[in-house]
Amino acid sequence: MKSKKIGSILLAGVLFATALTGCGKDGADSGGSGKSSSSGSGKDLMTIEIYDVAANYQGLQTGWFDKVVKDRFNLELNIIAPQVAGDAIYQTRSSTGNLGDIVLLDNTDFADCVKNGLVKDISGEIGNYPNLMTYKDQIDTFNNGLDGNDGATYGIPCQMTNTSPTSYSQDVIYSSPMLRWDLYKEIGEPDIEDLNGLLDVLEKIKEVHPANEAGDPAYPLSLWPDWDGGDGMIGIANVVQLTTWYGEKIKGSVILKPDNTFTPLTDKSATYYKILKFLNDAQRRGLVDPDSGTQTWDNVCSKISAGQVDLLWYSWEVGFWNSIDRQKNGTAFIFIPVKDQTYYTDSDTYYGSGRVIGVGSQVDDAKYQRIMEFLDWYASPEGLVFQHAGIEGFNYTVGEDGKYTQINDNALMDNLPVPEEYGGAGYNDGNNAINQWIVDATSTNPLTGESYTSTYWSSYKEATMTDMKREWQERFGAPEPVDWMEQNKVLLVSPNVSVSLPSDTTDISVIRNQVNAEVCADSWKMIFAKDDAEFDSMWDEMCKTLDGLGFQDLVKFDMEKHQIEVDAKKAVQ
Amino acid sequence: MKKFLSNKRKMRGYREFLYILPILVLVLIFSYYPLYGWIYAFFDYKPPAPLSEAPFVGLKWFKNMVSTDVKIREVLRVLRNTFAMSGLSLLFSWFPMIFAVFLNEIKCTPFKKIVQTVTTLPNFISWVLVYSIAYNVLNSTGVINQVLMNLGIVDSPQLFLQSSEHIWFKMWLWLTWKNAGWSAIMYIAAITGIDEELKEAARVDGASRMQIIRYIIIPSIMPTYFVLVMLSLANFLSNGMEQYFVFQNAFNKDSIEVLDLYVYNLAMGSGGYPLSTAVSILKSVVSLILLCLSNKFSKLVRGEGFI
Lengths: 573, 307
Description:
The complex is a heterodimer of chains A (573) and B (307). Chain A is of the alpha+beta class. Chain A is 42% helix and 11% strand. Chain A has 2 domains: 35-158 and 353-422, D-Maltodextrin-Binding Protein, domain 2; 175-346 and 465-572, 3-Layer(aba) Sandwich (D-Maltodextrin-Binding Protein, domain 2). In chain A, the strands form 5 sheets. Chain A has a 6-stranded mixed beta sheet, sandwiched between helices. A 3-stranded antiparallel beta sheet of chain A has the order 10-6-11. In chain A, a hairpin with a 5-residue loop joins β14 and β15 (404-406). The radius of gyration of chain A is 25 Å and the shape is globular. Chain A starts with a helix and ends with a helix. The model of chain A is unreliable at 1-39 (pLDDT under 50). Chain B is mostly helical. Chain B folds into 2 domains: 49-82 and 235-307, MetI-like fold (Orthogonal Bundle), CATH 1.10.3720; 92-234, Orthogonal Bundle (MetI-like fold). Chain B has helices at residues 2-6, 8-32, 60-65, 69-91, 95-105, 109-120, 127-138, 143-150, 167-192, 196-204, 209-234, 242-247, 253-256, 259-270, 273-302. Chain B is flat, with a radius of gyration of 26 Å. The two termini of chain B are 37 Å apart. Classes of the chains: A alpha+beta (573), B mainly alpha (307). At the A-B interface, α1, α4, α5, α20 and α21 of A face α2, α4, α14 and α15 of B.
C-alpha cells in the first residue's frame, strides 16, 4: 500500500512537471524568432500559430507545402485544430485572450471574437497588399456588416470568388443523386419519376449488383452517423443534405422553402420528414446497409472505394471511385435526374463561404508584418495555384499556350511520394493543412484564363470526354448535369450574401444541443422502424419531447436569425 | 524564535509538517482548486467572452434541469443508467476474486501464465480500440454473423451493436473482459501471501481442494475484497465515460448515457458549459450523500465507520 502511494505521488509529480515544461516550451515557441536556418526571404525563422476551424490536422505543417512557405517567408505554420483537439480548446484559448496569431473562424464566432477584442484591426495595413485588395469590395462588405463596426477592417472572408454573387460556375452541384452509369444502363436506363421510382431503380440495381468483385455485399445506400450535429446543424447529416433535392434548405431548426418562407423542422409536409420516410422505405426494402447506424464515415469511405455503395449524393464523394480509367470504361458515378426534384444550390461564394481569416490581437509588429505578407501571398495567383492545383512539374505541366495539363492525377488519392526537391514526403501528408482558402478554386486564374480547379481545365475536359459522357449527353440532352438542370428549370441558385448573424445565447445553445441529440437519436430509430405506424408514432413522440426541451423557442430564434439572411438574398435577386 | 527552536517537540512537529506539505499542495491543486470551476454554474457563461463579463444568474441552471417533465425524465434516466451500471459492477465485484482463486488452482504453470497474460492484456487496450474490435467482429459482415449464417442459425445479419436490449449487461461484459485479469492481480498477490502451513495442515486433516478454497483461501482474502469494494463505492457515480462514449449510438442511447457521458455530451456539443457544470455539481452532491450513507451502514454492521 505504502509503495503504491509513493509511486502515485511520484507519478503525480512527474505529470505536474511535464505540464509545466509543456507550457514553457509552448510559450517559447510562440514567442517566435529562434536562430534560423535562414532560407528564402533571409528573415529569421518564425512560427505562426493558426487557430483553424477548417483544419483536420493539428501540429506543424510538413512536407511540400511547408517548403513552399519556408522558401518564401521562412515561416513555420503551427496549426491548432479544434476538429482534432475538441471544441473545448476554443474556450481555453479564448479565455487567455490569445486564440492564435492567425485565426480562422466561422462568421458568427468571428463576430464574437471581434467584440471581445481577440482580433486585430488591420485597417491600417491591408491597403498595402495588392492581392488582398483585389477583393476589397467583398472584404469591405463583410466588415461593414459586423455588428457595431464603424469602418474598421478585421477579417478577410474565405473562399471568395472573382465571378459574381448570383452565378453558378460549376458543372455539378453539391448534392444530387448519382448512380453508376454501367449499372443504370444494365437495368435499361429507366426514367425516374420520384423517390419511389428511385427506390425501384435501386432495387433493380441491387438485383444485378448484389456484391462487389471481391464478393462483399453491396448496398444502394450506406449512411453514417458521425457527422450528425456538426456546424450547429440539427438532425442527421445525411438527411439534412438530401433535403436540398426538393429545393429546401435546413437552417438549424427551421427549413427554408423555395418561396423564401420558413417552416419548423418538425413540419410533416416538409422535406425532413419526407427524406426520413424515404430512407425508412429504403430500409424496409432492404436497400440500406445494415451497419448504417453504427459505422463511421471512414467505414463508408472504404466501402465506396471497394464498390459496395450504389448511390452517392455529395459531389466530392465520387472522388473515392471515379478515376479517369473508370470514366473511360463507363463504370463511374454520374448524376441521374429524378423528375419531381428541384435542386437547391448555393451560388458561387463571391462574398465568402461563411468562414473568415483574421489576425490575433496580441501579435507584435514584426510578426504582424510577416503575417500580412503571408496572407497577401495566400490570396495571390501563385499561392492559389499551389493551394488548388499543386506543384508545377509534379501535379501539372505548363503547355506552350500557357495552359496547364494535369499529371499524377492520383497524387492526393494515393498520397504519392513527392520528389525531394519539392520537399519530399507524401503529397497528401504535405498538402496545405490550413485546409481553407481565401480565394475559391472556381475563380479564374489570371495567368491562364482558366479556373484554378484542375477538373475545369480544357486539357482535363478533353481527357475525360469519354464514351460514357457522350452516352449520358445523348440520353439526357445536355452537356453537363448543371446544364440539364438549367434547361429543365429545376435548379434553384441561392445568391451569396454577406451578413453577420446573431450568435446563440447560452439558453439557446443548450436547447439547440439537447434538441439536436433528441432529433438525431429518434431519426435513426425511425429509419429502422418496422412499419408506417411505428414510424409515425415515433415522429409524434419526438415532437412532444422536443417541445419539452424548448423547441419552440429555438424555432423562433432561428427564424429571426435566418430572416436577416433571406432579406439580404431577396435584395440581390 | 529562540524559544521555538529550543522546543524540540514543536520543532519535530514543524519538520513533520514539512514532510506532508508536498502532498497537501498536490491535494489542493488537484482536488480543491478544480472546485473553483463550479462558479461557471452560476453565470451565463459563453466563450469567447470572459467569465468576468458573463451575467450572474444564480440558480437558473439548476432550475433549468428540472423545469419541464421532459427534462426531469432526462435527469432521472441518466441517474438510473449510472446506478444500474455501477450497481451491476458492484454486484459482480466478486468475479475477479473467484477468477483469481481458480487461476491459482491451475497446476500447469505455462498454461496458468498464458491465461493470466491473455486476460490481463485487454486492460492495456484503449476503449476506442475495443470498439473497433467490437465493430469488426459484430458488424453485418463480421465473424460472428458469418459463422451464424454459415451454420444456418440466422438467415440475415444480426445488428448486435444496434440492439437496445440488455445494454447494461453487455456493457458489464465488455468491462469485465477488459478488467477481470487486471483486477485479479491484487487477489493473486493476496493469495500468495497466505501461509502455506495453513493449507498443508488442512490437507493433512483430509480437506479437499474445494474445502481448502472455501475455508482457507477465500476467508484469507476477504479483507482485500472489502477494501476494494469500499474503494469502488467511492467511485459509484464516476463510472467513466470512455466506454459508453465509444459504444453509444442512437439506438442504445436511452440506456447507455451515464452521468459523465451526459455532462460531456451537454458541454461539448455547443458549449452548454453552465448547465453541464450544474449537472456535475449534482453528481458531487449525490456522491456525498452516498458516502455518508455507506459510512452509516458500515458503523451499523462493523461498529466503526471509515471516515
